[in-house]
Design a protein that fits this description.
Blueprint (H helix, E strand, L loop, with lengths): L1 H13 L24 H9 L5 E3 L7 E4 L4 E3 L3 E9 L4 E9 L7 E16 L7 E14 L2 H14 L15 E6 L19 E8 L5 E7 L21 E3 L8 H7 L21 E5 L3 E3 L3 E10 L4 E9 L7 E16 L7 E14 L2 H8 L17 E3 L5 E2 L4 E2 L2 E11 L5 E5 L23 E5 L11 H4 L14 H14 L1
Antiparallel strand pairs: 1-9, 2-4, 2-11, 3-4, 4-5, 5-6, 6-7, 7-8, 7-9, 9-10, 10-11, 12-14, 12-23, 13-14, 14-15, 15-16, 16-17, 17-18, 17-21, 19-20, 21-22, 22-23
Keywords: Glycoprotein, Membrane, Signal, Transmembrane
Membrane topology: Single-pass membrane protein
GO biological process, one term: negative regulation of Wnt signaling pathway
C-alpha cells in the first residue's frame, strides 16, 4: 500500500501536461553490421537502434489499418482485422473470424461502428495512450450454417425475442447485435469486447531507400476468456499496419483491404512447415507484456540432445533502450504431438533447471539486495553488471523465478513474406502466472522470433552468458515477473531518476 501511495505521488507530480511522459531519449546509432560480427549479435544490437523507430504521441489514428496475416487470439480464435478511423473521431471496424489457422474458411464477420476519444499518456504502459470509446452499432454476418446455428442458440438464450416472429437466420444477412439507440446488447453470445481501443500506440519504422511502415498497436486480449469483459489492457496485440504504408511484399494486405462484412478476406493456404527447432532465434522487435514489461528474447535450441538456453533482456522503456536486468535460463525439452486444440501448433514440455541474473540498473540492485537470505543468490552482494547464479537458491523469489520449473508450451513455425523463418512461442498468461499445468497450455502466441543462425553445436555443458547472448552492457533478460515485483521496480526506478 505504501509503495502504491509513493508511486502515485510520483506520477501526479512528474508531469504537468497530458502528454508529458518519461520516455527514453532516442539516440542515433549506425545500423551497419560490423566486420566479423555474428549475425545474432548484430540483430540484437540492431533492435536497440531506436533511430529506426519513432512513436507518435499523441498518436494519429486517422486512416485505414489492416492485419498483415492470419492472427490467433486466445481460445483459440483465428481472425483478421480491418479498422478505419476518421478525422471526426468516428471509426468503423471489421473483424473476420475463421474455422482454420490459415484464415481461409470464414465463419462470420463483425462490423463495429463507434467513436473514440484519446485521453492521456498511459502511466501504466509507457509509450501508450489511453482512450475512451463508445459503440454505436455492432452487426454480425454469418458465412456458414454450422457457426450460425451455434451462435443462434446462444443469442436465443441470452436475448429473448431477438428475431421477430416469422424471421429465420440466413447466411449473408446483417443482424444487429448492439445498438446504442435501442439499448440492445447481445454481443455476449459471441464473446465480443472492444477494450482493445482503450490502449493505443502508433509507431513509424524507417527502412532503407526511404521506405516507411506505420504500425498501430491496440490493447491485448485477456488469455482467460472469462476475464475479457472486465480486463483493461496493459499490453498489445499483434500490430495492424497502415494500408498505405505496410510491409512489402504482403500477399494478405490487399485481400484484407478490399474486404467488407459481406465479402470476408479469404487468405491463401500456407504449407505446414516441419518443426525444426534447432538453431538460434532472436526477437524481431522490442516486445511488451501485460503489467508493464518490455523485453527482447534470444533462444538457442539443441535438437540433438533436446537442451535449450534462453536470454531474456528486460527494459524499463518501450523502445528497449534502458536496461533493467537479464535472466539466463537453461534446461531440456520434450517435443509432443500436433495440437488438437490449436491447429498448426505443436505441443512441447520445457523444464528449466538452471538460471543466472544480471542486474543492469540501480533500482534492480536495490530490489535484489533487499530480498530475504537464500531466496535470490547472495543477498547484499548484487551490483550493476554483475552476473550471479540463482540455481542454488532454487531461483529468485523476488523476480518470480522458481527452479526447477516445468512449462507446457505451444510452438509454431512459419515463413514470412520475405521467406524468413519465424518461430511463434505460446502467449504468457495475462495474470502473470506460468503455464505449469497441461490445462494452462497457451492457445495463442507471442510476437515471433526470427532465426538468426542454423543448427547449433551441442555444448559440453551449458555455456555462460558472455559466450552466448551478451553483446554489450545495454542488454538485459527474465523468465516471469509478478505485477507486485514490477510495481516495486517502478517505484525504485522513479526514485533513482
Amino acid at each position: 500500500p505504501c509503495s502504491l501511495c509513493f508511486l502515485f505521488s510520483v506520477l501526479l507530480t512528474s508531469g504537468s501536461k497530458l502528454w508529458e511522459v518519461p520516455i527514453a531519449q532516442i539516440q542515433h546509432y549506425s545500423t551497419g553490421k560490423l566486420q566479423w560480427e555474428p549475425q545474432c549479435q548484430y540483430q540484437l544490437r540492431h533492435l536497440q537502434d531506436g533511430a529506426r523507430i519513432s512513436a507518435l504521441i499523441p498518436p494519429r489514428l486517422e486512416g485505414h489499418w489492416i492485419s498483415t496475416g492470419c492472427e490467433v487470439r486466445p481460445g483459440p480464435e483465428f481472425l483478421t482485422r480491418s479498422y478505419m478511423f476518421y478525422s471526426n473521431r468516428l471509426f468503423k471496424a471489421f473483424q473476420f473470424f475463421y474455422a482454420d489457422n490459415h484464415c481461409h474458411v470464414p465463419t462470420y464477420s463483425l462490423v463495429i461502428k463507434g467513436k473514440i476519444r484519446l485521453r492521456q499518456a498511459s502511466w501504466i504502459t509507457r509509450g501508450a495512450t489511453e482512450a475512451d470509446y463508445h459503440l454505436h452499432k455492432v452487426g454480425i454476418v454469418f458465412h456458414g450454417e454450422k457457426r450460425m446455428k451455434e451462435v443462434a442458440v446462444k443469442i436465443n438464450q441470452t436475448c429473448i425475442g431477438f428475431l421477430s416472429s416469422g424471421r429465420s437466420w440466413v447466411s449473408g444477412t446483417v443482424y444487429e447485435l448492439l445498438s446504442s439507440k435501442t439499448g440492445r446488447d447481445c454481443t455476449a453470445a459471441v464473446g465480443f469486447v472492444m477494450h482493445e481501443l482503450s490502449l493505443v500506440r502508433v509507431e513509424k519504422h524507417y527502412y532503407q531507400q526511404g521506405r516507411v511502415v506505420e504500425e498501430l498497436f491496440l490493447g491485448d486480449v485477456h488469455t482467460d476468456h472469462s476475464e475479457r469483459m472486465h480486463y483493461r489492457p496493459t499490453g498489445y496485440q499483434r500490430p495492424l499496419q497502415s494500408a498505405m504504408h505496410h510491409v512489402h511484399p504482403c500477399s494478405a494486405c490487399g485481400i484484407i483491404y478490399r474486404s467488407d462484412e459481406y465479402h470476408p478476406p479469404i487468405l491463401p493456404i500456407k504449407p505446414e512447415l516441419t518443426m525444426q527447432l534447432s538453431g538460434k532465434w532472436i526477437s524481431t522487435q522490442c516486445e511488451v507484456r501485460p503489467a508493464v514489461l518490455f523485453l527482447t528474447r534470444y533462444f538457442i535450441f539443441y535438437e540433438k540432445n533436446h537442451t535449450w538456453e534462453g536470454y531474456y533482456y528486460h527494459y524499463s522503456d518501450p523502445v528497449c533502450k534502458q536496461p533493467m536486468f537479464t535472466v539466463y535460463a537453461s534446461g531440456h525439452y520434450t517435443k509432443g504431438s500436433l495440437s488438437s486444440k490449436v491447429k498448426g501448433g505443436t505441443e512441447f514440455v520445457f523444464k528449466v533447471t538452471r538460471a543466472k541474473v544480471t542486474a543492469m540498473d540501480q533500482a534492480t540492485v536495490m530490489l535484489l539486495n533487499s530480498s530475504n537470505p537464500e531466496t535470490c543468490g547472495v543477498t547484499g552482494s548484487w551490483s550493476v553488471g554483475m552476473e550471479q547464479e540463482i540455481t542454488w537458491t532454487n531461483g529468485c523469489r523476488v523476480l518470480g523465478i522458481q527452479l526447477p520449473h516445468v512449462e507446457y508450451e505451444l510452438f509454431k513455425i512459419e515463413h514470412d513474406s520475405k521467406d524468413r523463418t519465424l518461430l511463434f512461442i505460446g502467449e504468457r498468461p495475462t495474470d502473470g502466472s506460468s503455464p505449469d499445468r497441461p490445462e494452462k497450455r497457451p492457445t495463442s502466441y507471442q510476437a515471433p522470433l526470427t532465426q538468426c543462425a542454423g543448427t547449433a553445436e551441442v555444448p559440453s555443458k551449458y555455456s555462460n552468458q558472455r559466450s552466448l547472448g551478451k553483446t554489450d552492457n545495454n542488454e538485459t533478460t527474465s523468465l516471469k515477473l509478478s505485477p507486485a515485483t514490477l510495481l516495486v521496480l517502478l517505484v525504485l526506478y522513479f526514485q533513482a531518476v
